[in-house]
Amino acid sequence: MKVERSVRVEDKLFCNRYLVDAGRPHIKVRAHTKPSPQLLALLKACPARCYDLNDKGQVEVTVDGCMECGTCRVIGEPTGDIEWGYPRGGYGVLFKFG
Amino acid sequence: MIEERFDAIVVGAGMAGNAAALTMAKKGMKVLQLERGEYAGSKNVQGAILYADMLEKLIPEFREDAPLERHLVEQRFWIMDDRSHVGLHYRSEDFNEERANRYTIIRAQFDRWFSSKVREAGATVLCETTVTDLAQDAYGRAIGVRTDRQDGEIHADVVVLAEGVNGLLGTRARLRERPKPNKVALAVKEMHFLPRETIEARFNLSGDEGVVIEAAGTISGGMTGMGFIYANKECISLGIGCLVADFQRTGKTPYELLDRFKRHPSVAPLIEGTEVKEYSAHLIPEGGYKAIPQLYGDGWVVVGDAAQLNNAIHREGSNLAMTSGRIAAEAIFQVKSRRLAMTAENLALYKRMLDRSFVLKDMKKYKDMPRLMHTNSQNFFLTYPQLISKAMQTYLRVDGTPKSEKQKSTLKSFVNARSWIGLFGDAFRFARAWR
Which candidate from B38, B106, B248 shows the least CB-CB separation from A41? Predict the structure, then answer.
């Protein structure tokens, strides 16, 4: 599964403001050996590209750039692949314009 | 733990939550509003267009100090293929009126202002507080909420769930289902900054006049989706949204889609040389009337996006949110005034009032539209835009071909692509869903 690299999402996220709640990610991926189709879909569907594959071919999430849209919740929560919550009050993305 | 007891707790400070909190506070009710953002608006994303009529019902003199961008004098609808667009534009001097009907706004700024009005009306607004659960008694009646800030529960007679499209409380408490991938769209948006004179020159505007461009076609790559470009004072909101189920199915990425839209020859000159200052993403309810969940129960009501109240055909959401918030608040006040309990039976008044308003009448009118658009996305978003573009080009290009031959070839291209049965079927289905 090749993830689209021609657009640098990092550059887009760079202009956003965040207050990262270090060590308390608000999204968790359930431990797995082989990712489900839903989990693989998140590699591309997440608009902040928070999901990536590790060396073992498992899906990992890094929530630092998350815009809290809920796309992964809609796709990945029904199958139990991810656990989704909102960040603690005041943390997460801080939209200047919205 | 907050020992105080409130008449109502409002979860969320978006359009629906602010409308509800303001309405109840103005009527003298003791209201607590909880918002997880650092301030009201810091988690909220919209295009955004403000519909004055619905706000006037809440704050008649809002034009005096609300942070408005531009009043809209022009609407452009574009049907796009990869290299062209066919447009339907409407511009009228009538829209240059003292009490304009529609404005572009920037949500983070607008919501902050809206929230200041809620505070002035006497509500207690607590930001940076994420509500984690609905507190229910042994009979399942809502009695308050739990937050990540205090231990224990905060109690109220009624909880107004204005928690947005992705509201967790309602699903955690099993009041409604989590939205399905084919019932919500993911929209991504960028804020492009330019000097105001440049925006006015590029969009043919003067003063505070504004324009909206809404675009559909091959820009969504066969998915059910839409692009938009809104002129603000010193920036342009530009974005595109498609059904989550379509993203899941096609493996297209939202940011690649956005950048393709930006590179389109009809769009690129409008945003040339801009400085992008924000990238945002948000879900939009697209399920229509049939996706509306149970709207009230013992001790609770749900309003706005959390209740899937969005008219996707007219791209109206914030006004439905504001109106449902206001109506819910008025219903709650009536129940309270009659000294009745906040039971499902009594709160059913909210649904009855909403049924009589434009909110549910409009939603009902287009009840079959989502299914039509979602199941025929290839035809409506790829095939037809390509055919229409080709027909326009054939019509306009002067090359010595007799007009009758041109007409024949255009007709043939439509029939070849969709067949007679397909064409009539599409027209019939569209008309039936629209009426």
Answer: B248
Please report residues of B whose CB lies closer than 8 A to that of A9: 255
Q: Which of A66-75, B372-381, B384-393 has the lowest mean pLDDT?
A: B372-381
Q: What tokens were used for A56?
A: 């073992």
CA pair distance B92, B68, nearest whole angstrom:
20
Per residue in B167-223, pLDDT tens? Answer: 999 999 999 999 999 999 999 999 999 999 999 999 999 999 999 999 999 999 999
| Yes or no, beta carbons of B127 and A89 under 8 Å apart | yes
pTM check: above 0.90: yes
> Is B205 in contact with B71 (CB distance < 8 Å)?
no
Distance CA B198, CA B218 (A): 28
Six-digit token string for B271? 């945003």
Q: Which residue from B287, B19, B12 is spatially nearest to B167, judged by alpha carbons?
A: B12
CA distance B280 to B257: 14
Q: Does A73 touch chain B (CB under 8 A)?
A: yes
CB burial readout A33-53, b (16+ within 10 A) else e: eebeebbbbbbbbbbbbbbee
β-pairing, B68-80 vs B31-34, is unpaired
CA distances from B246 to B89, B249, B258 (A): 29, 5, 15
Is residue B128 less than 8 Å (CB to CB) from chain A? yes
